[in-house]
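WARN retry 2 of 3 for item q-0093 after timeout on previous attempt; input resubmitted unchanged.
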Amino acid sequence: MTAPAPAYTTRTVTGERDLAACFQLRKDVFVREQNVPEELEYDAYDAEAVHVMAVAADGTTLGTGRLLHGPAAVAHTGADRTVGSLGRLAVGKEARGLGVGAALVRAIEDAARDHGLAAVDLHAQTHALRFYERLGYEPYGPEFMDAGIPHRAMRRTI
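OK item q-0093 returned
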């Protein structure tokens, strides 16, 4: 017996329409739910990042995340050019608990491999540490605040 097909797929963002859907989801999750100031949510790195998204069969955007690589990632990874930076991972309320977040992390790791990277760093909100640990990420360094939310740096060799 084969497993049922997932109710969503993950893919790399292509075009402005996809990017707008990802930005809207990030606004819903980070700005509206978590009260991150909108001017902090969007940055110059968005233009250079590889964005991924999870899309339901009906076309609804369920989740998104981004990968910084090359010069854009250096400030986030301790200047190691072989390490990418996973960030802005967001899953809409209706899609939480469906495995969307884990699927997006794996899609970002695939993109990192495609760019020749050896590891992926991220800055996890402390409430999400266990989620990332289950995916093989290890915390390092002290807790720090970002947009008023406690975070820890984490890394996984891919």
